[in-house]
Amino acid sequence: MIYLDNCATTKPYKEVLDTFVEVNNSYFGNAASINKFGKTTNKLLSAARGQVASILQVAEDSIFFTSCATESNNIALLGSVEHKKDFGNRIIVSKIEHPSVLESFRELERRGFILDYLNVDEDGVVDLNHLKSLLTKETILLSVMQINNVFGTIQPIEEISEILKDYPKVHFHVDGVQGVLKDKLDLSKVDSYAISAHKFHGIKGVGVLYLKSRRTVHNITFGGGQEDGLRSGTVNVAAAASLAKALRLSQEKVETVKVKHKEFKTMIIEGFSKYNHIVINSPLSEKYIDSIINISLPKIKGEAIVNALNERGIMVSTTSACSSKTFHLNEALFVRGLSRENIEGSIRVSFSNETTKQEVETFIEVFIDEYNKKFKEVIESGI
Ligand code: PLP
């Protein structure tokens, strides 16, 4: 089997699983207890927090463990508005965000805030002039993802933070799930940042929220006060420690992985270049990350391509895993202005730190074979 759906999730490193088991086995105390076991577990939790903080180059007390990036996004968005609601009632979100961000904004809209959607250009990069036109003295929240999960555009986060200098009331949240370690970002430029372990070879069910200032975000759930009251509930220390391990192991490979992913993307784009009907929606360009390629066969359904590859032992995805079971036009591709046929016929191929050149070569070979056998004629007959 060849797994090329790493934006959906990655395989945990063995060392990460070992850490998870070891901590559960030997350090199962409650980090909030003052007994010996509790204290040891709490030390381990602090060490994990410290490690994450040092890799992200932020202060230790700005790191909060959560259950996933969806939760991190919800806390940052709903919690910052709760803090700022007396200062304004407008909120801005880019049109290509993950549902965990978009749906949080829609909930805020239902609660009475005025929601403005930020446009992207044909490459899927947010339109900074449009942002300038949307910002008002009433704006209290803006969310723009670091790297898009459908086609991989890198967003101009630092330029946005420059624009926001004239709007100090705005809380600037960045969903860093697909961007962490892949694209350098100075977190002092943002107010909050969300990541999820299972996207960098960690386990599912643990995420991090970075908050520049804890004071500026209210907790949205209530309980025993863990994680400085931001996220009550007994902390899953084994998961936190394994997230820190995954982040460290991934960081060690960053530079070699970057080179590898560029080579893989180039191989695919060159391999498909003589086939006019194969459309690349995320070209080789500084605007896009190399680990994600969105490819279309217009007039063919993305699902049919995914299934054909599946039968040959290759796993890719239609758009994002969250929406791939229900068939509707992918919103992020739609707002880029891509044609309906192009969107319907799109698949996403995404590499991990572990993807090999041979896997990519096989993917290219099999894709072209399936294209020639199953899809070329259908496309050319115009059906
Ligand atoms: N944000 C982005 C950009 C994602 O790609 C995903 C998952 O696919 C999430 C948020 C949600 O992450 P989690 O699965 O940790 O809730």
Automatic annotation (TrEMBL):
Name the record gives this protein: Aminotransferase, class V
Keyword terms, alphabetized: Aminotransferase, Pyridoxal phosphate, Transferase
Molecular function via GO: transaminase activity
Cofactor(s) for this UniProt protein: pyridoxal 5'-phosphate
Domain Aminotransferase class V, chain residue ranges per copy: 2-363
